[in-house]
Amino acid sequence: MEESTLMDRARENWIGYLFILPTFLMFTLLFYFPIVRGVYMTFTNARLGGAGTFVGLDNYMWLLTNDLFHFAFGWTLAFVFGTTFLQLFIGLFAALLLSELKSGWREWASAIVMSPYFSAPLAGGVIWLWFLNSDFGMLPRLITDIFGVSTPAFLAEDLWPYVSLIVAQSWHDYGYAGIIYAAAIVGIPREQYEAAALAGAGRLRRFRDVTLPHLVTPTIVILALRTAWNVAEFAQPFELTGGGPGTRTMLMSILTYETAYVNLQFARAYTLGMAMIVISMTAAIFYVTVIQDEEEMYV
Amino acid sequence: MSQSSTGDGESTEPTEAPTSDKPSRRQFVQATAATATVGALGALAGCSGEQGDGTPEPKGDGGGTGSGGDTDSDSGGSESVTIDYLSAQAVENAGMKSHFQDSMKVFEEKNGNVSVSLQTASYGDIRSKLSSTVSSGNPPTFAEAGGGGLQFYLNDKVPDHKPFIESTDFLPNDFTAANKESAQYRGEYWSGGGMRHTNSNLGIRPKSFSEAGVSNPKKELSTWSGFLDAVRRIDKNQDIIAYEETGVPGDLESYWGYARTAYTEGTDPWMRGEGDDKTVVVANENHEDRGKTDGMIKTCVKMANEFSSEEAAQRGDEDIPSLMLTGRVASFNYAVPTASRWTSVKEDVKFGWQGGDGDFMLLPHPKVDSEFGNNFGISDLEGVEGEHGGHMWALEQQQCIFEASDAKQNAAWDLNMFLLSDNEFVLPAWGEYYEALPGLAPKLQEVLDEYDLAQSTEQAYKNADEYGVQYSTTGAAWDVPDVDPIRWTDINETISQAIAGQHSVEETPGLVRERILKRLGQ
Fold first, then answer.
1. 20 to 30 A from B238, CA-CA: which of A42, A137, A269, B231?
2. Is B43 an interface residue toward A (CB < 8 Å)?
């Protein structure tokens, strides 16, 4: 049988190609081209306003020998996984609570629960800044008034800045996990719960044996997407600590910003961005591997 | 940054997944993983500065017909032009915003064939906005480019400004010393100057200092030893932060200011030498001035450690007015002429000493006296004496003309002259809406004559005038391409790390030196 060539397929589906052409061109112009150009830039010494010259792997050597990068890499991992898993659990909890509400109430409660997710990250940063501020913040004032003890500086002292950043980011984005989990829970056939109840399964058992299996796929979706986005999270942490005190909470996203816009070294900033991609890709591959293992287990 | 609309759109698909068949799940999850990766790439796509293949005109071409400050001039003949002007100063506060908008109309009336499209960005965002527009090949005609303008000049995105400056009768002579220093790079003009400056000074809460026994602050707080004594008394006896260092890296200009007080006659504390032949003074065992520079770095860290709050390494100057006016902070070293920063917190601020009952008073940074090193336990400063002085902000406000047609460049230069020299703009801007020092030296007296200024503004003016070059712009005289990274990162971030306890006081100057040398490629 004669094999259809690329041209044959193009002739056959030319209308389809025509329809996707504008989108493809725009994606190429605004997305793929900057990415390819950016990757090339990591092999140059490009700075603000200049194309730079080819420097081979110098930027990658700089990255690997830079103490602040080492720290930022480790802290970014802790921030991303701390935030992602906290968002996952809070989102699941919120979705379960919402599923217990009657229709009508549920929609209003959903809107309230999800509202942080729809607020601008910078606004979220300002809210938390004023909430945690040692001098005028509500939380230190409440603790001092109620318990009569002074509070640590939540954004500056000991381990508190790390905790504060993770909690604040989890607050902002748990709604994303909540939305997906809520949709998944609504989609679970009621008959399965009824059958489990008739078989004598208690509330916890029904959750484990009926609800949880239906949540595996949404969980992977949430983990993969939130990991990628949390790696690139910038506005709220920047507003809250700006990587400080000193550089004690320097995330890779903030370091990338500083490298580009304070030190004006765009090529190095993009090289940092490549490291962020590595984290996202590694996490995505890990999650896919986990779901494959899980599927094989069920099969 | 990460919550893109794309992400939201993608979220609708996964919600349907649980009801679908199992065999499709793997494909779906794999697609999700790919999407996640692409999402991260997308976040970076925005960071990719397209570095332009523009073919700039030869430097100096088109600049020679500048109007020389005559804002009634005809820009580029009868051709009507619209110029884009990007400014951060235009949105510093509500008063400045409306003054700028009104002033652009005034400028257009005086230059009938020129229209100005005023674009704004905060000082935090202007560099990224400028970078994006230049990278996309669509730079503004005129912009408050700050230190980034030097990079654009070195990369041929900004023309030589010398022809423009030479076309006037009064430049560069009328530039303030800070502007002369900042607008030049190794003898070449990369900018048309900055329209205003502020300077760093000591700020105190008179109520706290009078309670500590100070009766004549100008005299008693004129030296570091006198200031230290008073701060120690406040720290011991009052429930207040006796001295707050504005120690976030972006606001350690406080240190830039008082680093000069160990020196005399405007000597640069950090770097000396011409061209690429630089001698770094910091932690330089072979340099006679090492002790002065290292000593002031240690003073900064020790003052923060002993008297400041736990949040000093994150403290920004904008926090201080509310803290001082509510009795939480007694002193700091980042006081600027801008009284509106204080009146925006409390309308009836009592400026000045006011018999020891004032809310806020501005003084020169204390000068290093021969006893200070011994008094504060910093051996490097033993026997050292310096002068009053401080940091003058000038690099940040430098305004550049970008590559454009001759007519547009000339119109942009006219706008620059208007902003520098037209009293209709200059006097209200720096005397009323955002109290600051004008970019042209003769205008300083005119503002003083026109307005009844708050004590803090008037004293800041006097300090800049009385102590002359001792109030200088940090880094402008270095003439190195990496002036901003050295100032903000190598010096400030390293000191901020020390305040945050990431390394010791003693090792801080050595680390600063190491980072500067690495930056300079030495």
1. A137
2. yes
- The nearest alpha carbon in chain A to B252 belongs to A246
Q: Which residues contact B478 (CB under 8 A, 6 or more apart)?
A: B268, B270, B271, B278, B486
- pLDDT, one tens digit per residue, over A94-121 is 999 988 888 888 888 888 888 999 888 8
CATH of the domain at B357: 3.40.190.10
User: Taking Cα atoms as reference points, which of B423, B449, B448, B418 lies closest to residue B436?
Assistant: B448
The residues with which A108 forms a beta bridge, in sequence order, are none
CB atoms closer than 10 angstroms to residue B471:
29
Q: For residues B330 and B310, what is the distance between their CA atoms, to the nearest angstrom?
A: 15
Q: Do B30 and A221 touch (CB under 8 A)?
A: no
- Scanning every residue of chain A, which has its alpha carbon at the shortest distance from the alpha carbon of B12? A180
Do A225 and B42 count as a contact with CB atoms less than 8 A apart? no
- Which residue range is the domain that position B178 belongs to? 81-194+394-450
Contacts of B157 in chain A (CB under 8 A): 49
The reply to whether B399 falls in a domain is: yes
Q: Which residues of A196-218 are buried (b: 16+ CB within 10 A; e: fewer)?
A: beeeebeeeebeeebbeebbbbb
Q: Number of A:B CB contacts under 8 A?
A: 253
- Within 8 A by CB and 6+ apart from A21, the residues are none
Residues in CB range of A102: below 8 A, 6 or more apart: none
Inter-chain touch A49–B248, beta carbons under 8 Å:
no
In the numeric block, which tokens belong to residue B52? 């332009």
B126 touches chain A (CB under 8 A): no
Ordered strands of the B201-204 beta sheet: B331-335, B201-204, B361-363
- Residue B40 domain flag: no
- Kindly give the pairing relationship between strand B114-120 and strand B142-143: unpaired
Q: Which element (helix H / strand E) includes B472?
A: strand B471-472
Would you call B140 an interface residue with chain A, using a CB distance cutoff of 8 Å? no
Domains and CATH numbers, chain A: 71-252+281-298 (1.10.3720.10)
Å between B137 CA and nearest CA of chain A: 10
Can you name the residues that pair with B400 across neighbouring β-strands? Answer: B143
Write out the E strands in B200-309. 201-204, 271-272, 279-280
Together in a domain, B274 and B322: yes
pLDDT tens figures, B94-121 = 999 999 999 999 999 999 999 999 999 9
Tell me if the bond preceding B172 is cis, omega within 30° of 0: yes
Examine residue B252 and state whether it is found in any structural domain, yes or no: yes
Do the Cβ atoms of B29 and A37 come within 8 Å?
no
- Per-residue pLDDT of A58-91, as tens digits, reads 999 999 999 999 999 999 999 999 999 999 999 9
Please check whether residues B371 and B406 belong to one and the same domain. no
Binary contact (A242, B157; C-beta < 8 A): no
C-alpha torsion B442→B444→B446→B447, nearest 10: 160
Are the C-beta atoms of residues B457 and B349 closer than 8 Å to each other? no
The position carrying tokens 């935030």 is A83
DSSP β-ladder status, B279-280 and B361-363:
unpaired
The closest alpha carbon to B181, from B171, B169, B193, belongs to: B193
Q: For testing the chain A interface, which of B11, B12, B28, B51 should be mutated: the one with the most A CBs within 10 Å?
A: B51
Paired residues of B393 in beta bridges: B198
Give tens-digit pLDDT for A215-236: 888 898 898 889 988 998 999 9
User: What are A295's two structure tokens?
Assistant: 């599927």
Give the predicted TM-score (pTM) of the model.
Answer: 0.86
| pLDDT tens digits along A116-163 | 998 888 889 999 999 999 888 999 999 999 998 889 999 999 999 999
DSSP 8-state assignment for residue B81? E
Q: CB of B499 within 8 Å of any CB in chain A?
A: yes
To 10 degrees, what angle do helices B508-520 and B290-307 make? 130
* Cβ-based contacts of A264 with chain B (< 8 Å): 148, 151, 484-485
